[in-house]
């Protein structure tokens, strides 16, 4: 996480803003590092490289700004990154408090979020929308097989990025910023049977209906493949909503289970802006923390509707922060900067998904990829308040051609993900 020293000097219209980067208590001035400064309403965006003292200088108008830093490098043949952020810096022309936040070093992880499809699509003929077809793809971002049996899935309060967030204190920071927990909502899902994921491979998890949704909604996806997994209601009596269904092709060993935290007849996955995470926890430990009321946080409400489970930060493997494209200015981050910085925007109900960017340098460096990488990626949504993969590599087409893909890992959702105009499972 970046250490930022902010100073301002009055000027007729413009102010000087300086940002200093620090890692492990020392100035961070690596060549190639870039500080991105964003005006919080989205009106302005600037970039500057730090000088020999680790200081990046900007000239801005008064306002509220956020700064982000991601520096990627190959160490011992593996991609790592150094990143950090500072949010909502008020620049008024008066001497400002000095903010110190160290850059975090992000080492590569095997299991990551590759894609989240939760925004739904249009029904046939464009009459209404359909959102029972949500799915999640987990990817092994290495060449080594890994055990995913204790992988868990969850999301944070509040459900939507622009909803009232009671977890922000009077100092405008998250009350759990310096604590070892995040507020998991709804339920935390676990596998019920052993799961292994080969290197450079993925598993698909259907969130509600593990069926062929295209049978009734042309724009949807087919989630009935027997290799897929299902967040099942078969042993969760509380979840009786009709959107829960599974094809007979899905083996019962591929059923996940959960321990509901809140009231409701179905799990809730935001269709506009989820704060989604992967964790590592045994089924027994998941059961305990979801039933131990001493481990609950009631900031979001004193009844079961608003309860949150204090999920340990140390158990989080990967985090994805999504902001609703129509409500950027009213959105607030739900993850603390040590888990995630930045956000990716999403337009719901159009069949779009949030898809992970390719780590171009690391992927091109794999000798087995020679002649197999497909360029000219065209599934980004820059034209509809979205984004695209800056690598230019078409990951799905490359995988089909036999390539191995290494995806970006910077702990910055804005740099790691983009909005994809067609869900990758839509053939």
Explained architecture:
The chain is mostly beta strands and 427 residues long. The strands form seven sheets. Strands 10, 13, 15, 16, 18, 20, 22, 23, 24, 25, 26, 27, 28 and 29 form a 14-stranded mixed beta sheet that branches. A five-stranded antiparallel beta sheet has the order 5-4-7-8-9, with no helix packed on it. Strands 1-6 form a two-stranded antiparallel ribbon. The two termini are 40 Å apart. A hairpin with a 6-residue loop joins strand 11 and strand 12. The chain has helices spanning 283-291, 360-364, 395-400, 413-416, and strands spanning 15-20, 22-23, 26-27, 35-39, 45-48, 55-60, 63-75, 78-91, 104-106, 111-117, 121-122, 129-130, 135-140, 146-147, 151-156, 182-191, 196-197, 202-206, 209-210, 229-231, 245-246, 255-258, 275-280, 296-297, 308-311, 316-324, 344-346, 353-356, 417-420. The chain has two domains: 15-106, Sandwich (Immunoglobulin-like); 111-356, no CATH class.
